[in-house]
Here is the input.
Amino acid sequence: MRFLHVADLHLDSPLRGLDRYEGAPVDDVRGATRRAFENLISTALRERVDLVVIGGDLYDGDWPDHNTGLFFVKGMMQLAEEGIRVAIVRGNHDAASKLTKSLRLPRNVHLLADTKPETVVLDEIGVAVHGQSFITSAVLNDLASAYPSSIPDCFNIGLLHTSLNGRPGHDNYAPTTLDVLRGKGYDYWALGHVHAAEIVAREPWVVYPGNTQGRHIRESGPKGCALVTVENGVVQHQAIALDVMRWETLSFDIAALSDLDGLLDAATVEIRRRLVQSDGRMLALRVRIAGSGALHRMLAAQPETIEQQLRSAAIEASNAQVWIEKVELTTRPQVDLDRIAERDDPLGLLVRELRVLTTDDIARSAVAEEAYRDLLQKLPLELREGSNALRLDVPDVLAELLGEVEGELIAHLSGEGAAP
Here is the structure.
């Protein structure tokens, strides 16, 4: 028996952070989530699977029209023609409360109930699928705890949209624990909601397949589904890529780059290497340029020019298959701080004092206490409260900030960091 485990398709969700510019493959990335779905259907047919289970978030909220739903139904009909069954739970983005439109699903598709857990037994392949859909967009109780026990002589699959015990970047919906999941006696837990692929456990299998198409730079790397083969009770898991555009980050340190041509040559080599690794997919790249070196002055003086040069190099190196999503510049001037620290002048004294503050927790706390108190009175509310609060009273935070500004400050005061 073989099945595909997929989740978080987010059909017709736009890709974010892709600015339009001359030569960028704008038309090619429209409908990327649809094309990933088409790859899913093709994979199911090619691999001759018996079943497809979908762990929620088929859609990205309510449809602007019926075309999104019709596109999904068309894909399900292709599976029906080959006798492939489908079981679905809704997640927070496509909960019953979020969708005002609906379409009749083909007979091969079973949408599991949202009022209580439901079990679908597929006798022809010896599988029992247990699950419950989201009835609202914010389910905060442990749905899995009410799932029924396993059915004897069946391969039992638990279908659940959940954050488990919490995952960074994801709301804590339908929280549960591995102990609860193991207590059901199922053979495989097909999870959704978390967009990064993860094999949480193997006894039993507890798996996030990730989403099918990355939509922004925080959803980087290969995206797709899991192909699961069960033979004589033994489970084999294989990740299958479905994405049509892949998000990645390129990082360069200017310490080893003498000039702009060196940066562009290094970027060209890396772009071509990433293209080979992507198996012909388009790439959306964020370029991060850091470090200290002679190139800093040009980068600081002409950031827009550098960005356009990198985009031009990407187009040439990839035949317009690479999109530079953003260029981040965090370079520093090339300053010999050790040499300056030896000087008997105000700059030398400043470097030595900064280094004392960086290494001496007591001295740093004493300076920070007074400065922080005065600064708090001038900061806007969003920088004084909540997760974005500036916490200079935390020793490690202040030490990190001092390390970041030391070179920039000394370069500015000495005139060595000035733009040409």
